[in-house]
Amino acid sequence: MPQGLLNLEAILTSNIHGYAWLMTNRERLPNVRYFEEIPVWEDALFLSACCNQLGHIYHHPDHLYIYRRRDGSLCNQPDAGHQFNYWAKYLAGTLLTDPSRFALTPYHQDVLHRYFQSRINIEEKFIQDTSSEINPD
Fold first, then answer.
1. What predicted TM-score, i.e. pTM, was given to this entire model?
2. Residue 102 near residue 45 (C-beta atoms within 8 A)
3. Would you call 9 helix, strand, or coil by DSSP?
């Protein structure tokens, strides 16, 4: 992806990984909060809130951050697919039933809802594939 300004949809449908995308200036984002009570997809919610307030995010293609998996991280748990799927369903549903919860514009709600719907499909396929590896027919 080239360097430059991107809107939420361009970011969520790209190959930019959520854990390595954002440095913020809190002075420009005084009303944006991080949803600590949500254990997964919280980075997508935070990114959505930033785009909601700023309209876009500046993407720099260089790798400026090295992600390391930690022991105890949800990503390393045997039920990670189930957890990611559960929370994607919960957040997609919340965007429909309580749209004010995340204080997003209708555009950003729609983009984020479609993102979570796509993640549900991916996680369900992952769960199916990994369960067939564990329990072959």
1. 0.84
2. yes
3. helix
Residue-level pLDDT, tens digit, the chain, 137 residues: 778 898 999 888 876 655 445 667 788 888 888 888 998 998 899 989 999 999 998 887 777 777 677 787 777 788 888 999 999 999 999 999 998 999 999 999 999 999 999 999 999 998 888 876 655 55
Phi, psi of 110 (to 5 degrees): -65, -45
How far from 2 is each of 16, 42, 73, 79, 122, CA to CA, in Å? 11, 25, 31, 35, 26
12: DSSP letter = H
Tell me the one-letter amino acid at 2: P
Q: How far apart are CA 21 and CA 98, in angstroms?
A: 27
Q: How far apart are CA 44 and CA 108, in angstroms?
A: 11
Residue 44: which residues within 8 A CB-CB, separation 6 or more?
A: 12, 18, 112, 115, 116
Identity of residue 13: T
Residue 108 DSSP SS3: helix
